[in-house]
Amino acid sequence: MSAVGPxxxxxxxxxxxxxxxxxxxxxxxxxxxxxxxxxxxxxxxxYLCQLYQLSKAPDAYNAFTQKLNSxxxxxxxxxxLLFALYHSFTWFQSSAVVLPLRIGExxxxxxxxxxxxxxxxxxxxxxxxILFLALKS
Amino acid sequence: xxxxxxxxPLWWGLFSAGGVVAAFLVPIxxxxxxxxxxxxxxxxxGALYRIxxxxxxxxxxxxxxxxxxxxxxxxxxxDMGLKSIxxxxxxxxxxxxxxxxxxxxxxxxxI
Amino acid sequence: xxxxxxxxxVTRYRPEKDRAPTTQTYVVPYRQDWVVLxxxxxxxxxxxxxxxxxxxxxxxxxxxxxxxxxxxxxLTCAAFLRDYxxxxxxxxxxxxxxxxxxxxxxxTDFMEKLKSVKPWIIRKEEKPVSEGEYLQTPAELEAxxxxxxxxxxxxxxxxxxxxxxxxxxxGPAAIALGYRYNMDSRDQGKDQREIIGNHDGIWDCTxxxxxxxxxxxxxxxxxxxxxxxxxxxxxxxxxxLLPWGQR
Lengths: 137, 111, 247
Description:
The complex is a heterotrimer.
Chain A: H1 25-56, H2 58-67, H3 71-98, E1 102-103, E2 106-107, H4 110-135
Antiparallel strand pairs in A: 1-2
Helix pairs in contact in A: 1-2, 1-3, 3-4
Chain B: H1 4-36, H2 52-82, H3 86-110
Chain C: E1 5-12, E2 22-29, H1 36-47, E3 66-69, E4 72-75, E5 89-92, E6 99-101, E7 104-105, H2 108-116, H3 138-142, H4 155-159, H5 161-165, H6 172-182, H7 210-214, H8 221-241
Parallel strand pairs in C: 1-5
Antiparallel strand pairs in C: 1-2, 3-4, 3-5, 6-7
């Protein structure tokens, strides 16, 4: 312990409260972003349950699909979709930070990189939709 | 090699891969599974899920985002004040994703 | 005609007699061109000489005057009164650091962490002076230049909730500093900075991103951390999958 410097016993320590993420907008949006992973996982579990029903019998699959046509499930999927879109957008923004893209010597600006990701997402979504419509029966 | 410090890149790598899969693919699948088929915008008997490469695609679609959730949720719970049960949370989160991996494979093979 | 005024609510903590911090209210003249630091200097010079706080250059290059202004970490020499007027301004010491007195925080932990990333050029083999300087192209300089701009103001540590919850976390500035050297083409010491890839290094970070938002010099420590994660992960997978191809 040095002779010069503050008395460690007199230092005042402020503790971070467990509600820290409610104290400002940025932290709150951060927490929403993190919680989006929960809704994505929940949706995939629902999807898995549906596929499990299919593994039992086609009738079971149809019965499950019918069950999804209820206000409760529609609301769940709406919430899940909003969180999934929030995840996608924030993920694309993060990608622009993590991977600096260049054309020759010039750095592509982050909003443009994000926009390119969104464009790619739209294209991929359309491809999945087309494949689904082509393969389903 | 079992110390937390050396294994972190594995979980982060899986988290990242899951994040990419979830970002590009999950929204359209929510629309298909949650709205298009139940609301009758299009019909579906589930026959397409028997195609082998569709099963492979579904395995990636479902499993990788589970690891994304596990890693993110583990850190979130720690940051929300549950750091004292950190080890238990790790088992529940990463263990959950691992269980989900096997369950998904088993279901897809059953179809 | 009465001169316009603005109210500052300032944290006071006198370790010799206080058990906990309190707030003291000062009403200072409101000037269009004043920053919060000017108001603090006015308080100290004209109203209450006992107020303690750090400052130096008053122009945003020394990093001394970082404090919480209405809950946001800011350089008080860069926070204009006119951006808050006529509301009251709350001035508190930087969060996530212990308070020594009033607005002065203990930065020992920060200084230790800066040292721990070995912030100097590390060579496997030194070139003799007779062979001249280590040359660097503009592109090589650009690869790390923005990360050299850190003024050690600690706003990023105050903005980081992970550091607030886990004091062992290496933190944004220290990791950005380590990244600056890892990205410097003259440096060969990446394997000596393993503290960055350890548990309380980059892996505690959850990319909240507030560090980069509050940084007054646009260093973007969040980018340094995430890019380090990619780098460490790539090397880790390479060492697992291709163990013979070690660099």
